[in-house]
């Protein structure tokens, strides 16, 4: 009986497959390098934020006034110091991989990433939070949905326009009647 | 006998028409969420949590638990039909189920997956019924030092087993701990509130969980261009029979029998959970299979049934530390714990004594839920298959609005909606740069508990850390932690040795095959 045994552990095959299944790979040839520089920026930002967190933690007491109990600063100081060290380690690792990043070989890149879509969604979410109370939940949600459908995919736009109006109204009624959630009515308060 | 009477009381308690209806709604909602590519059980729970705000605690937790295991079932459908696992635990299902579906065995693969989930879920519910009271009686003797060490152990397990890089895993933990320190601490001092009254009670868990899981996964999926991809689901009615054939039953049955206890055992370990157990079951099935070459190629029923059984059993197993210690073993149970705390229920050793109707109602609902899920799965497979046809571009904005309404509903605070959106981007960047949002959420829940237990331990010992080595259970937990730390150092050489052995065996096999071929060539 001949059996073909793979030397690759099954878990590694699974991990490979996981990256293979739902996610397309990068679009531009510069992407790996940009990703690494992005990682550098990300870890630098985390290091700065956690640095500020740690400085503030050192303003808090290590022990209580009696000196026999953990003060409010005990845990934050430990967390902050560890987080700064770890984020700096991550930063160094990212810098190393950014330096070592080689241009991708032809054929390794396929469909694209969509950073601009994410920026647009981010702006949409900021707008959502800003006008949610003054304009009201149903209208804000309806406009937000229309904008999102326009940004994400402009297909079946009539059907989605109906959905953009019907869904927030349904949800509003559900939350108000069932959960008595107190969602802001805003400009639809007269209804 | 107490056990049975408690269980019967629990089942009777959830047999009211309203609770059964909510169970059904939870199961269906969970399955729909699980079927949607990119949304796993934790995201589904986070998104649907606000819909339970108006319910009684028992009804709410029954519905949420139904969403929880319904989502695990749902992931199987999208994995088999469109090769898109809802979460990492369903990856083996996609690896084996999708090739089976391509061969025209979609319906048998789904039936096998559903049966594996049902059997494992029911076996795990039985084990939970027995293990939870036993574990509660053991853990009731645990003091703050043991609880602190258990929390550390849980996080350590998560970092070691789940993450690829321990630096990133540990950083995720520290970020979760840091967020958990915002607000008034136990001594009464304000930390990181910057004078804001909104932050006095700390950064709320629900918006963070919804943002990191629900919205974070949506952003991640859109960033990766899922809205540009066309996924044509395999037709479940095509060509073949509905039920698995005899050899598929035989292969699947053994795998289920092995996967269920393995999954339950792994689920009990805080931090290990469904993904690790699913991958372990897959490795085990491939390792013992007589035809390992079928795995990942033509589709092996054992490779589908084993991991399916393991991940569903692990989902139930994760309830043991949650119910008896109040420690969530996975991201999904962390969200469940958030729900518990919202209804002012404190899981831990005393939960089963102080709130028996709640704890046993939850356990009892799992038996009913599994039966409902099996029936729904087998008879409604084509209906759920049609959910996979709903495109992500249509669903994504609707989910964003649902999350926003839900987050606002908790406290009527727009700041919390803002926190949720902020956490969505934090979750996205964490995934992009290899950090773990799941670990952050668990650490956010466990951070204040860890601080509280450390503080109590040090009060009890007059500030001496010696308390952690002076009690027997603490010493045992410290030894386990040490073993966990040593494990990678030992595992690497063992893995290399096994790899070498396999390589040598393969070289010998091919040499034997060549020497066997050579005379034939000469004769011809």
UniProtKB/TrEMBL annotation, chain A:
Keywords of this entry: Membrane, Transmembrane, Transmembrane helix
Keyword Glycoprotein: no
Pfam families assigned to the protein according to its UniProt record, in alphabetical order: TctB
Region: Disordered, residue numbers: 1-30
Compositional bias per record (Polar residues), positions renumbered to this chain: 1-11
Transmembrane regions listed in the UniProt entry: 37-58, 78-96, 116-149, 161-179
InterPro entries: DUF1468 (IPR009936)
Residue span(s) of domain DUF1468: 45-184
Protein name: Tripartite tricarboxylate transporter TctB family protein
Lineage: Bacteria, Bacillati, Actinomycetota, Actinomycetes, Streptosporangiales
């Amino acid at each position: 009986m001949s059996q073909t045994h793979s030397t690759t552990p099954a878990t590694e095959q699974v991990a490979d497959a996981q990256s293979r299944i739902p996610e397309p790979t990068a679009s531009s040839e510069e992407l790996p390098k940009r990703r690494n520089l992005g990682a550098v920026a990300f870890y630098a930002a985390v290091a700065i934020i956690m640095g500020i967190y740690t400085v503030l933690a050192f303003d808090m007491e290590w022990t209580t006034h009696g000196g026999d109990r953990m003060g409010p600063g005990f845990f934050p100081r430990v967390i902050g110091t560890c987080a700064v060290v770890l984020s700096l380690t991550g930063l160094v690792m990212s810098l190393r991989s950014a330096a070592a990043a080689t241009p991708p070989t032809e054929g390794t890149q396929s469909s694209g990433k969509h950073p601009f879509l994410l920026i647009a969604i981010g702006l949409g979410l900021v707008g959502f939070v800003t006008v949610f109370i003054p304009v009201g939940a149903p209208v804000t949600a309806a406009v937000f949905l229309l904008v999102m459908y326009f940004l994400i995919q402009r297909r079946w736009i009539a059907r989605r326009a109906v959905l953009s109006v019907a869904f927030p109204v349904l949800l509003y009624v559900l939350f108000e009647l069932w959960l008595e959630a107190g969602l802001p009515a805003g400009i639809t308060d007269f209804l | 006998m107490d056990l049975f009477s408690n269980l019967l009381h629990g089942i009777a308690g959830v047999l009211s028409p309203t609770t059964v209806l909510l169970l059904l709604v939870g199961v269906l909602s969970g399955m729909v969420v699980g079927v949607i590519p990119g949304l796993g059980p934790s995201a589904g729970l986070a998104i649907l949590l606000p819909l339970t705000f108006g319910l009684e605690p028992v009804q709410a937790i029954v519905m949420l638990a139904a969403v929880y295991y319904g989502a695990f079932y749902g992931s199987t459908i999208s994995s088999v039909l469109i090769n898109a696992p809802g979460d990492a635990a369903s990856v083996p299902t996609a690896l084996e189920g999708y090739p089976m579906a391509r061969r025209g065995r979609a319906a048998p693969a789904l039936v096998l997956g559903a049966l594996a989930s049902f059997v494992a879920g029911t076996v795990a519910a039985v084990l939970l019924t027995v293990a939870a009271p036993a574990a509660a009686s053991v853990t009731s003797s645990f003091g703050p030092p043991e609880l602190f060490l258990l929390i550390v152990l849980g996080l350590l397990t998560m970092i070691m087993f789940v993450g690829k890089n321990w630096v990133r895993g540990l950083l995720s933990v520290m970020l979760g701990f840091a967020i958990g320190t915002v607000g008034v601490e136990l001594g009464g001092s304000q930390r990181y509130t910057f004078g804001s009254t909104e932050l006095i009670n700390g950064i709320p868990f629900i918006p963070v969980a919804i943002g990191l899981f629900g919205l974070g996964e949506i952003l991640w999926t859109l960033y990766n261009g899922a809205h540009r991809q066309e996924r044509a689901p395999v037709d479940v009615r095509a060509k073949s029979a509905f039920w698995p054939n005899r050899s598929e039953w035989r292969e699947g049955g053994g795998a289920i029998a092995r996967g269920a206890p393995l999954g339950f055992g792994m689920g009990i370990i805080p931090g290990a959970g469904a993904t690790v157990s699913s991958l372990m079951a897959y490795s085990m099935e491939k390792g013992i299979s007589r035809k390992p070459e079928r795995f990942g190629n033509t589709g092996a029923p054992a490779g589908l049934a084993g991991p399916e059984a393991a991940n569903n059993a692990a989902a139930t197993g994760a309830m043991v530390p949650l119910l008896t210690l109040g420690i969530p073993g996975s991201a999904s149970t962390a969200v469940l714990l958030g729900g518990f705390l919202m209804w002012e229920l404190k899981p831990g050793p005393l939960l089963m004594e102080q709130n028996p109707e709640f704890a046993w109602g939850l356990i009892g609902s799992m038996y009913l839920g599994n039966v409902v899920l099996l029936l729904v799965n087998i008879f409604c497979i084509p209906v759920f298959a049609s959910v996979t046809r709903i495109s992500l571009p249509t669903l994504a904005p609707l989910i964003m609005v649902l999350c926003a309404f839900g987050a606002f509903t908790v406290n009527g605070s727009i700041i919390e909606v803002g926190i949720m959106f902020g956490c969505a981007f934090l979750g996205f960047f964490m995934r992009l740069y290899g950090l773990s949002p799941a670990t952050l959420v668990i650490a956010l829940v466990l951070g204040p508990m860890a601080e509280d237990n450390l503080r109590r331990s040090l009060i009890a010992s007059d500030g001496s850390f010696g308390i952690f080595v002076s009690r027997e259970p603490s010493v045992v937990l410290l030894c386990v932690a040490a073993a966990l730390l040593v494990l990678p150092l030992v595992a690497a050489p063992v893995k290399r040795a096994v790899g070498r052995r396999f390589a040598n065996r393969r070289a010998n096999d091919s040499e034997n095959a060549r020497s066997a071929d050579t005379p034939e060539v000469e004769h011809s």
